[in-house]
TrEMBL record:
Record's protein name: Glutathione peroxidase
Keywords of this entry: Oxidoreductase, Peroxidase
Gene Ontology molecular-function annotations: peroxidase activity
Domain of life: Bacteria
């Protein structure tokens, strides 16, 4: 595909790769684009510093003065937001499938 620059995750497309891509048929180009997308996806996933609800709950439980009932209420609100965000992402994904490039 291309080669990674030392020190960052950007790919540089060499002249050889550029010439090869220009000659690709539809299937080869689709495969190339998929591999570029997957590499970008993995780079993004690795750079994300996400926490799951268990880690959030543990941090809240560590706060002095926050009891079991309050933790349960806070976690219910947080889990509801996670659920809303997931549903919103699914709706956007479904709407995005109408475009065929």
């Amino acid at each position: 595909m291309g080669k990674r620059n030392q020190g960052n995750t950007k790919y540089s497309v060499t002249r050889t790769v550029y010439k090869a891509v220009k000659k690709y048929d539809h299937q080869q180009f689709e495969s190339f684009c998929t591999s570029v997308y997957k590499c970008g996806w993995e780079d993004g996933r690795r750079s994300l510093n996400a926490m799951d609800s268990g880690e959030i709950e543990a941090a809240i439980r560590g706060v002095k003065g926050v009891g079991e009932v309050r933790v349960r209420d806070i976690m219910a609100a947080i889990n509801e937001k996670f659920k809303e965000k997931a549903e919103s992402a699914e709706k956007e994904e479904g709407a995005g499938n109408e475009n065929n490039y």
